[in-house]
Amino acid sequence: MLVTGGAGYIGSHSAKALRRAGHPVVIFDDLSAGHRAAALGAPLIEGDVRDVDAVRRAIRESGAGAVAHFAAWLSAADSVRDPAGYYGNNVAGALATLEAMAAEQCRAFVFSSTCAVYGEPAEVPLLETHPVSPINAYGQTKLAVEQALPHFERAYGIRSVRLRYFNAAGADPDGELGEDHAPEVHVVPRALQAAAGGRPFEIFGEDYPTPDGTCLRDYVHVSDVADAHVRALRRLLEGGGSATYNVGTARPSSVREVLAAVERVTGRPVPRTSAARRPGDPAVLYASASRIRGELGWEPQRPALDTIVGDAWRWHSAHPLGFRAAAGAGRE
User: Fold this and answer.
1) Where residue 149 sits, what CATH number does that domain have?
2) In the chain, which residue ranges form alpha helices assigned H by DSSP?
3) 210 found inside a domain
4) What angle do helix axes 255-266 and 305-318 make, rounded to 10 degrees?
5) pLDDT tens figures, 260-306
6) Which residues span the domain enclosing 239?
7) Looking at 9, 86, 118, 138, which residue is catalytic?
8) Other CB atoms within 10 A of residue 51 CB
9) CB 303 within 8 A of CB 294
10) Average pLDDT of every residue of the chain
11) pTM tops 0.70, yes or no
12) How confident is the model over 312-316, as a mean pLDDT?
C-alpha cells in the first residue's frame, strides 16, 4: 500500500505498524517535514501529493491497492495565520491523491482526520455524531476532505475510513521512531525540551473554564493511533463499508497535568511562562471511542499519561538531535 506522508510523525509509526501486520508499504513523501530515516528502510518515493501524475506513478509502480493519507500540515494556530497554505496543501493534496487513485482504480483510502472538525464541543465526550463546526482552518481543511469522500465513493468506488484522532503523543516503544518537528508545536515534546534545558514551556491560556484554567485534551499514544490505521485498512480490504471513527482514550488531561507527568518521568522541573490563548483552541476536547472499540476491536494499549510521556522521553533522550543524528546530516 502507499503511505503518503509516511516519513512524518504519525505516518512513520503507522507505516511501521502496517509493515508489521504484513502489508507491503511504499512511502510517498516530499520530506519537507518528514525524515528519510523515519522510513526505517521502507521504499521511499520523493514527491508532492499535489502532483496527480506523480501520485499516479507511485500507485502504479508500487502496485498499491490502498492509500493511507498523512500528508497534511498540522498546526491549528498556524492555519489561522496561513489559511491559503493550509487549503493549498491539505485540501488540494488530498484531492489530487484521490484523483490519482480514481485514475489507477485504487479503491481503499484511510484518511488521517482530526478532532478539530468538531470545533467547540456542545457536549463531551465527543461522539462521531456530534455536529461538525471547525473554528480554525486546519479543522476546516480536514472536514472539507471528509465531505468530498462520499462523492469520490459514488463516482469512483473509493471506500474510505476517516480516523478523527485526538492528541497523538509519545513515541515508538521500540525506540526506533519519535516526534521531530521544527518548530515543535505539540505539548509533550515542548515540555520535554523545557525539562531538558531548552526554552521555558509556554502555557497558552490559563483562564479557560476548566478545573485548573488550562486546556483539557485527550492524549492518545501514537502507537495506538497507528494500530487504528491497521484495523481501518483491514476493514476496507475485507469489504467493509466507509466509516468514521474517533481515536482517543476518553481520558482528558490538562496542560498542567501533562507538565506534572513530565516532571515525574524526567525527575526534572519544567520551567514555564504564561502566554495568551492561541486563536482556534477550544477549552475541552476528548473522545468517545465506543464506536471504534465496537466495530474494529480497537483498544488503546498504552493509555496512561506517564507511559506516553515516558516513551517520548526515552526517544528524545536517545536522539537529542532528532533524526538528524540518524541521518548524519542536516535536517530533512
Assistant:
1) 3.40.50.720
2) 9-20, 52-62, 76-81, 83-86, 92-104, 137-156, 187-195, 222-237, 255-266, 290-296, 305-318, 323-327
3) yes
4) 60
5) 999 999 999 999 999 999 877 889 999 999 999 999 999 999 999 99
6) 2-327
7) 138
8) 16
9) no
10) 95
11) yes
12) 97
